[in-house]
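Example S7 (structure tokens).
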């Protein structure tokens, strides 16, 4: 258990990586952690034990202890410890501990704002080491059920929940129209029925170009394209048409490259927290991965 908590402590320092690292790590090392509940000996499987830890993780936190509730470092550290347990427990056991936790800590407005910020920071940010669409959706779903929140406070989490539910893994990706660099009108669903790597990009986005360059040089992806085992569809969703026209010829010739003709962003067909939006689809347009880090995408490509 000591090694497990040390790993969680490492994760808690992630959001401060761009600040003074030495100072932040020293502070993080001194952050108090809630004592873990004693697990009954009758619970033997790892998933049962993780579920029990989740259900009792916050038992020792007094909801009236505003000194701790307002301590952002304390709450952040223990929030990270808590959410890391979700991957070890069955999702059917998530609901009660999630709602119980949120009910316990969100009665205080200051703490409520802090917890919402932590949910966004750790569960939604593409760069977070504990990011999880499923856990994020679970937290937002329970948040929208909290009593006592007014319409204004519920507006953003409801919007973010609806966005998170779009094109999630296991669902069929939304279709859209686009114009290819050869001037042909087509759509996502009109592409050949093979696995598809979908890139939604902006030619004026430096990060987009960095990702495209890495994918261009990926040997596994190049091999799969050559063997007709995958298709890359790169669609410009932002930026002006003149800029795209000047840059589209620089894109890999073996990719299908086009410009959006359906208003993907304006009509919110896809939720893209950070460009480029990356989706790996199977041959039936079902989403396999949504906005994965490149390492995870490369692992999935290796398995095709």
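Recovered sequence:
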């Amino acid at each position: 258990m000591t090694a497990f908590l040390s790993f969680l402590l490492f994760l808690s320092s992630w959001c401060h990586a761009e600040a003074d690292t030495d100072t932040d790590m020293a502070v993080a090392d001194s952050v108090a952690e809630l004592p873990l509940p004693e697990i009954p000996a009758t619970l033997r499987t790892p998933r049962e034990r993780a579920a029990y830890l989740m259900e009792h993780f916050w038992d020792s936190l007094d909801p009236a202890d505003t000194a701790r509730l307002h301590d952002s470092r304390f709450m952040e550290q223990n929030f990270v410890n808590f959410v890391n347990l979700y991957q070890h427990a069955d999702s059917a056991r998530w609901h009660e501990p999630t709602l119980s936790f949120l009910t316990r800590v969100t009665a205080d407005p200051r703490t409520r704002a802090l917890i919402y910020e932590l949910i966004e920071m750790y569960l939604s940010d593409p760069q977070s080491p504990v990011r999880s669409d499923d856990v994020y959706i679970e937290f937002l779903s329970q948040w929208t059920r909290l009593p006592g929140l007014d319409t204004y406070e519920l507006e953003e989490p409801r919007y973010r929940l609806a966005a998170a539910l779009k094109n999630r893994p296991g669902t069929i990706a939304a279709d859209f129209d686009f114009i290819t660099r050869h001037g042909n009108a087509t759509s996502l669903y009109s592409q050949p029925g093979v696995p598809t790597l979908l890139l939604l990009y902006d030619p004026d986005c430096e990060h987009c170009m960095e990702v495209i360059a890495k994918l261009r040089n990926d040997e596994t992806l190049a091999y799969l394209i050559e063997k007709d085992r995958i298709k890359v569809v790169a669609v410009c969703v932002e930026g002006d048409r003149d800029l795209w026209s000047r840059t589209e010829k620089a894109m890999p010739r073996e990719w299908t490259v086009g410009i959006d003709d359906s208003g993907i962003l304006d009509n919110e067909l896809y939720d893209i927290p950070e460009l480029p939006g990356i989706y790996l689809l199977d041959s039936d347009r079902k989403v396999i991965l949504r906005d994965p880090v490149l390492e995870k995408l490369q692992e999935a490509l290796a398995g095709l």
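Notes on this example. The chain has 13 helices and seven strands.
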